[in-house]
Amino acid sequence: MNAYVGRGFAKFAVEDYVGAISDYNIAESLDSTQSIVYLNRGITKITFGLKDEGCTDLYRAHAMNDPDADRNIRRYCIPQ
Fold first, then answer.
1. By CB atoms within 10 Å of each CB, which of 8, 23, 47, 72 scores lowest?
2. How many Å apart are CA 47 and CA 64, to the nearest integer?
3. Which residues, at least 6 apart from 8, have a Cβ–Cβ distance to it below 8 Å?
């Protein structure tokens, strides 16, 4: 699972958002208990233009007590 999260992060860094989302989907299928998957996939989806789906992932990360979820929800999902 960690390999797919790392690879997803690397793909995000080179703006391969579709590839990153795919890797995060695989990571989720291997271990759906890791909030980092939902946090990173949410940010990637939002960056790719899938705001609603991305915010759903961020809220899921929040429900799993991810320490970075709140900041990202405020930044991306709550209208200013």
1. 47
2. 22
3. 19, 20, 21, 22, 23, 24, 27, 40, 41, 44
Range of the domain at 16: 2-76
Q: What angle do CA 16, 20, 22 make, to 5 degrees?
A: 120
**First CA to last CA across the chain, in angstroms?**
35
pLDDT in tens, 30-78: 999 999 999 999 999 999 999 999 999 999 999 999 999 999 999 999 9
| CATH number of the domain residue 26 falls in | 1.25.40.10
pTM of the model: 0.96
In sequence order, the 6+-apart residues with CB closer than 8 A to the CB of 69 are: 35, 39, 58, 59, 61, 62
- Of 3, 9, 80, the C-alpha closest to 47 is 9
